[in-house]
Write a structure and sequence with these properties.
- Strands 1-2 form a two-stranded antiparallel sheet.
- Helices cover 64% and strands 6% of the residues.
- The chain is globular and about 60 Å long.
- It is mainly alpha-helical.
- The two termini are 28 Å apart.
- The chain contains 6 helices and 2 strands, in the order ααααββαα.
Amino acid sequence: MPIPSETTTDLFERLQHQVALFARRAEQTRLGGVGKARNSMDRAAYLLLNRLDNEGPMGVKALAEGMGIDSSTVTRQVAPLVDSGLVKRTSHPEDGRAVVLALSPRGRARLDEVRASRQQLMSVVTEGWTELERETFCELLGRFNIALSDYHAAVTQPEEHTSS
């Protein structure tokens, strides 16, 4: 790996600083949105409900793998969503012994409300941006998130040992 130049080092310093500021500000607002839905759903719940909405009913293991977290974490995060009626547990259509998690009608309505609030926040925050700037930012942030996810997966993989 080449040694970064001073200019590159400065750029990485600015980048890490901006990411740190973003993380703080995102947590401060919880990217919750505006209006009555503001800060009304935590990040874990939002991501779980969003995944179930986008991909349909699935088991805890599949949900955990898709989100890059362990099954025990998903189980812990899903419990209050089931208790509050946002997620329902149902039998797997092909294997009645297995349980799948699905977004309930109440969960879908709540998710729609929170999504609309968060979309309104994004509109307000990027009000002075062009459509191209929003598209570019979204694309780059998506690439950044994928790169972070790939890095995390690589460094948390158990090392494979080969016998000599």
